[in-house]
């Protein structure tokens, strides 16, 4: 528990540092900015407001894992931020070490832009703040969130995939899970095709190794959500620990929903901005479909967790009279 609290405080400090930089930019400060490169004020504000909001959410989630009041927050209020923040940060656990290797090997040099889609030319030290915050926040929550979840929801997380029979919503879970799985697999296939040279949905031009790695990581995260939710719904591998497919679903679907909503402000701003290489149509359509698929997977996982928690409570209540007797 002590390790979880320390990790939570470290993650809180990282999120706060990142958020303060974003707030400074929103307030009009040019600290760390060399040149705006013609980026519209609307896109700049939309990107920074959305990422600052996520920074605030990350700070609250991190602090909740470290403080006693975090155990008393209503489940509905804390579950969604935890779900999304973990999913958003998971890719950085892979991408940041890979970036260090790529730079050291001379395979890639980071562009002078922010890591989250807001694109002025930045001073080099800002990368220490932005990327460093992501690394510390991701690593901190990777320790703090499992400790918190285990302390608070242990009864629902214990056991195997097949330990709890299918519940009353199972007939709805199956078609929802498969609809999301088919849609998400198509999205993952598109990202993998970009990684291996396809150009559908992309502007003409070379795609560097960093962007291709990002495509692969995004596809793998989506496929984790697909595999995880299908294992949970169909009870595949009934003797498998329940937490393994749950974590895959959590990190995958949380990232899909979080990334989608993070992109929405710039999509709706009307400036036709898209990530490097992507057409606006591909970006906007892919974002919307990713939100839909991630939302469906999250909904199915929620049904499963609620039913599993209710079953655990019933078992506890049934054992109480026997223990008393």
From TrEMBL:
Keywords annotated in UniProt: Membrane, Transmembrane, Transmembrane helix
Regions that span the bilayer: 7-25, 45-63, 75-108, 128-151, 171-196, 216-234, 246-268, 280-306
Source taxon at top rank: Bacteria
Statement: the UniProt record of this protein carries the keyword Ribonucleoprotein: no
**Name of this chain's protein:** Uncharacterized protein
Q: Which organism is it from?
A: Micromonospora inositola
